[in-house]
Structures are given as structure tokens and as C-alpha cells.
User: What shape does this take?
Amino acid sequence: MSQVLDTAAHETLRLIGPDPDNWVPPRAGIDHNVAVIGGGQSGTTFAFALRRAGIGGVTVIDGADGPGSAGVWLTRARMNKLRTPKVLPGPELGLPGLSFQAWYEARHGADAYATLDRIPRTDWAAYLAWYRETLNIPVRYRTKLVRIEPHNGHFRLHLDVDGELRIETARKVILANGVAGNGGPTIPAVLSRNLPAHAYAHTSQPIDFEALRGKTVAVIGGAASAFDAAAVALENGAADVHLFARRATIAALPVIRLRSYPGAYDNYYALPDALRWQQALRYQRDGSTPPTDAITRVTRFPNFHLHLASEWASAQFRDGRIVARTAADEFAFDFAIAGTGYFIDPSARPELQEFAGEILLWRDRFTPAAGEEHDGLAGHPYLGAGHEYLEKTPGQAPFLKDIHIFNPAAFVSYGLPVGDVPSFKRDIPAIVRRISQDLFLADLDAHAARINGPIAEDFAPELYAGAVRTAVARAAAE
Assistant: This one.
């Protein structure tokens, strides 16, 4: 049945022809030309893009137990629909037969697709599973990157493979490892310092929402993930859910949308540093906007309570409950959820700690004007044109150029939440082009010999000899 449904996909693959042969010369002691860290939507798309660029020796690893737990869509993502418009180009990389639209219409019809405002989350997860299977992209699950060790012009990757420590080598690394890939979840100190670990969770963690039935739940944060967590708690029968936001109003200005036209989108990296900084700062100050349906999903419940301009001043764990105070009131809760986003700090990642201090950060490259400082943004890596790390001190860590970042750490440099669907069209081809160029030039002698090597003639002179008119033949004819 799937063969019939996916005629467009199979016809697309037929028309683009077979994958190019791997053109990267083998090197002694190298296991992989490229190691892609993360087997979700980004990692599988990179695997396809690298294959189509003729780059073999690619491995994709993921610490998840299997396809159902890789990525976010069936784990910590709790929205009903994706936040991005359904028409944005994504993993299909310009091939319509591999798009979500083609997949969805084959199963539900063009009219059903036309009625969608945004893509249902579970349908997106099913599409990604189909994409991986249709393109035959192998992902090595239960394989976690523990440490990246620079070694003689390549990397020794220390891996935990299903509990067994193993070392493999790679020339290039792509960090397509999600929102915490260059840092970690932001957990307010009022929770982490004052409450036992079992009394709260971050939205990045597994949460037993069924256990919250009949409980009073606090959610801290005013962005989409906070509203999503509040909604799931309510839908699972929580007695009351209180959402606390620091702002006096919920962020409602989608400032990133202003730079989504092709001129700004395609050329964002070429903007002056001051303008890129100003754009990142504006986003931070205006806030991350939850979709309207994320808000209406909770406000339909009479037991949902929204507290604006209500940062927690203190919290205690007393008699099995959380007792929290804001500037105006005191509350008691059974459980707290932090929907407070993520921080960027490469030194917080164990796999990067060996050289994190050598990575060029925005604070090393750019000094904002008075009043425009922001410690969080200043800690983002200042990336190169191929999303590669750059050296803080030239010549000290030349290997950094071989680590490419496809996660939100690229936000200040590239102006988007990199790793989300809007970044695919621009950034995945750019990274693949840079990897291709770097690998090609690194083996230039071998390629020079190859392109200057002997080659057999397509035909012999006898093919056209009878049609050649010589001067003698012309004289005789006259």
C-alpha cells in the first residue's frame, strides 16, 4: 500500500538519479568522514544531503533507545501543532515528492491538506519516520557522544554504545543535537536551590502528567513550552494549574517574521555584527511568542490561572508541598514545572569541555553599546560562514573549523532558532557545501592527480576519418 501512496516520492528519487559515488579518498585510521550527532529531523536530513553531495563515510548517532524516542516530537514536545507554517521548506531539500505536503496528500488528499492551518505534531513525527525509512537513512541508536578529542588533524570520538565505551575517528563533526546541544536547560535557582528534585521538572525532562491528576501545579514561564505543559497537565486532570510569567503581558510580537523574506533570510550572515546583535537583543527583549492556539488551549479551562508580572521571590518545601511567594502573594503547590528555556554555554557540555575555552564567543568579538549588553547572548559562539566554530586565539585550536553547529547556539550569528524547520532551506546546504569544500581541499593532491589522470578516449579518429577533406583531396576534386 505504501508503494502506491508514495508514487511521488519514488518518482522523485528516480528522476534525480542514483546517488553520486563517494569521492572522498579514504584515509588510514579514519572511520568516518562526517559524524552527525543527533538522529532527529536535522541529523537525518544532513545524512541525505551529504549523500547527494557524494560524501560517503557518514555516520549518524543518537542516544535514544530507538526511532520513537529520537528527536522531540514523541517525547518532550507537547504542542498539538507545529509552531511553524505548513508551507515552509524542510527536510525535502527542494524535492517536492519528499515533502510533508506530498506525504500528507497521499494519505489524506489535497483537500485535507488545504484545510490544515499548521501541521499536527504526531503527523510530523510520522512523516519524519517515513522520510528516514524511504531514504534508507541508518541511525545508530543507543549511541551517545561522551567526548570529542582533537587528535592529529581529526577527532577521536569517545562514545557510549549501549553501555560500552568505544572510540571512533572522524574528520568532521556536525552537532545537530537539539536545543541543549551547546548548553542545557535553564532551571531557575529558586527551584534548584530550594526544592528537592522530585518536586519539580523542566519541560525538557520526562514528566508523568497522569500522576498530576487532582494536584495543584505551578508552571513557571511565559513562552510556548510553558503553555504546552500547562495544557497537558490540565488535560490530564490537574485540579488547578497556575502559570507565572515575569512579563506584564504575554509576548505577542513575532519579530523574527520581519526578517523572513528572501533578502534578509538568505543574506543574514552578511549583516554587520552590530545589526545582528541588535536583532538578537530585540528578540530577547520582546520575548518568544506562543501561538494563539497554545493560549486558547489552556484558557478554556476554568481551573487555569495566569499570573502576570509574578516572578517567584522564594520557594520552600514544607510538609510535602511547595510553598512559593511572589511579591504580592503566597501559594502552595504539589509540583512545579519550569518552562524557562535553555542557556548557551559550550563549557557546560561534557563532550566540548576539553576545548570549550578556545571557542570564539560573541563577547570576544563584539562590544555592544551601553544599555545593549546581554550576558546570555554574549555567550553564544561566533560562528563562521559554514556554521563552524572559530578560534578565540588564531592558531591555538585550528581543529575547531571542523565542528559545525546546527542547533540554537547559532542564533546570534544566523538570526533563527537553528535546528527548527525555518533554518533547513538556508543552513543545511551551506554547511554541506563547506564540508564538501574542506574535504576536497584537504585532499587536493589526490584530487589534482585524479582530475589530471589518464582517461580513455570516447572514440577513435576512424569515426570521422572518411569525412575529412585534405588539401590534396580538394585539389584533385578541382
Remarks:
- The first strand starts at residue 32 and ends at 37.
- DSSP finds 17 helices and 18 strands in the chain.
- The chain has a mean pLDDT of 95.
